[in-house]
Design goal:
The protein is α/β, with parallel strands linked by helices and 490 residues long. The protein is built from 20 helices and 7 strands. The radius of gyration is 25 Å and the shape is globular. This is DUF2079 domain-containing protein.
Length: 490
């Protein structure tokens, strides 16, 4: 019996789904292994675990890491995270978030690879799909916790694939859900709308532009200020100029003039920004610059390079994640539209593969082949043994890397932070934590201040429960009514 056309299409593309499945396993293995080794952090895995846990319990999201009963919809507008809540009904914990992120990133490989296979041939599809899946922007995000922008990656891949194939309605439909991922992506939708209009459907393009502008304005000027404890969008200071992150060049002032200065000269300086821009385009041999699809990356590059926070400028963390589908979609589009010869195509593919492989060892996916990744520090078992003493539902203050280990079952916040819930029932601190985990993205106390704070806690009603392997566990002693009465009488 003859195979149906649907079966033929499946058998012709089975290797694409196999590639996506293999990449899913790689992403999940890296992130889950980091979590097992207690190398994840409160910012951001602990925060997002508390957010999705809130949705799963049927109320608006709050994060104790951000502050006592802090409403997260006043921090970033990411209601799409509610889609993860049903998975928490099956398994509640940070591991679920990491697996969901791995799945989202792996799915994004499929439309780009299918596009390259159909227009450039199966070998080209395989090379481009693999290089995209192993790209440094994806690797950096996988190696650093979970982030809401993971939802944007498959949406962008599907939208830009449709846009590159002149399926303009599909491009708009895939782009519009980006408005629920994060407030800045409204500007990305705006640019997609402009490209749709330029490609021929002016009415649909202008509708998409209007939706992007309206959603971004609504989020920034209405929703976020309404939920924010401060009554305004907390990150305006990064745009208007501020002190920046410790150890980096921050803003020199404030206001519009400073923004304009950083938006011109600041876009190409310092060297970190140039390096990020070059590294972004290098896997495509800079051919992506010949495609109008690359304009979609402009809003992300502008807000990052004009930010006063130097961490936004480089290649670390998750900040380059959304750029990867944009760059590789532009690469495919440029290869197709310029009518590259067979020899030229092979040259570009070889260059793309070579640069990806050269870059790969510098980013987290390479950890899978390093022996240290599969060794577990004995202190991890000690930490879990002590954490097991903390009952479910308790209020806890703890070290940065211990937060996501406890956020699934306790009300946990950062130890020593002024924003944390005061007088928690339990305190657990890793006094051997390296200095690299302290500071802006880590614990809010220095090692010396932390020791002083522990001594003060012992004087104000906290009893030492256990001290082992560099971990200190303390419990607040409840004062019995009779004791309070006698103290008052005396």
């Amino acid at each position: 019996m003859a195979a149906s056309p649907h079966n033929g299409r499946f058998y012709g593309t089975w290797w694409i789904w196999t590639m996506a499945g293999a990449l899913f396993l790689v992403y999940a293995a890296v992130s889950l292994r980091l979590h097992q080794r207690m190398m994840t952090s409160s910012y951001d895995l602990g925060i997002f675990d508390q957010v999705v846990r809130s949705y799963a319990e049927g109320h608006l999201p709050v994060s104790e890491v951000k502050g006592q009963d802090f409403p997260v919809l006043g921090d970033h507008f990411s209601p799409i995270l509610a889609l993860v809540a049903p998975f928490y009904w099956v398994w509640r914990g940070a591991e679920t978030l990491l697996v969901v992120q791995a799945a989202l990133l792996a799915v994004s490989v499929v439309p780009l690879t299918l596009w390259a296979r159909r227009t450039l041939g199966a070998p080209a599809g395989a090379v481009i799909g693999a290089c995209y899946g192993l790209s440094w922007g994806i690797a950096s995000a996988v190696g650093y916790d979970f982030h809401e922008v993971a939802f944007a990656v498959p949406l962008l891949a599907f939208s830009l694939t449709a846009l590159g194939n002149d399926r303009l309605s599909a491009a708009a439909y895939w782009a519009l859900p980006l408005l629920l991922v994060k407030e800045d992506l409204g500007l990305t939708v705006l640019v997609i709308g402009l490209v749709i209009a330029w490609r021929g459907d002016r009415r649909l393009g202008m509708f998409t532009v209007a939706a992007g502008v309206a959603a971004a304005a609504l989020a920034l000027f209405v929703v976020l200020p309404a939920f924010s404890p401060s009554g305004s969008f907390a990150y305006w200071s990064l745009v208007e100029g501020g002190s920046g992150a410790p150890g980096v060049d921050g803003g020199s002032g404030g206001g519009l003039l400073d923004l304009l200065h950083r938006g011109t000269i600041g876009l190409v300086t310092p060297q970190t920004k140039v390096s990020t821009f070059v590294l972004m385009l290098a896997p495509t041999m800079f051919l992506a610059m010949r495609s109008p699809l690359l304009w979609v990356a402009l809003p992300t590059l502008v807000w990052r390079f004009t930010s006063s926070n130097g961490l936004h400028w480089g290649t670390g963390f998750h900040y380059s994640l959304v750029l990867m589908p944009m760059v590789f979609a532009a690469f495919i589009d440029a290869l197709v539209r310029r009518g590259t010869s067979v020899r030229g195509l092979r040259r570009y593919l070889a260059g793309c593969a070579a640069i990806t492989l050269v870059i790969l060892p510098n980013f987290p996916l390479f950890q899978l082949v390093q022996p240290d990744t599969w060794r577990t520090d004995p202190r991890v078992a000690v930490a879990h043994r002590l954490m097991d003493k903390i009952p479910d539902g308790a209020t806890v203050q703890t070290s940065d890397h211990l937060v996501p280990q406890l956020s699934n079952r306790t009300s946990v916040s950062l130890y020593g932070s002024n924003d944390s819930r005061p007088n928690p029932q339990w305190i657990m601190v890793d006094v051997w934590a390296p200095d690299s985990t302290r500071g802006w993205l880590g614990a809010p106390l220095s090692a010396e201040a932390e020791q002083q704070h522990l001594v003060e806690s012992s004087r104000t009603g906290y009893a030492l429960v256990a001290q082992e392997g560099g971990f200190v566990l303390m419990h607040r002693q409840e004062v019995m009514p009779q004791q309070r009465s006698r103290s008052g009488h005396a």
